[in-house]
Amino acid sequence: MPDAPKTQHRSVRIADDDWSDLGDAAAAVGLDRAKAINQMIGWFLRRPGIKLPARPPTKPIEETDR
Description:
The protein has helices spanning 16-28, 33-44. By secondary structure, it is mostly helical. It has a domain at 16-54.
């Protein structure tokens, strides 16, 4: 099958806000969620040559966040 992914689909529980923010943060540095997650896992497992993905710029603190 030409559209078959090379990796197995996995399910994890992630809060909706975190999932949304991860999508925004990953896009801000030119990644998608899967790429960012896979890089973080590779770094956590100390895989050779894997580095943490770049972090997005910080957002200004809004009055409601204080």
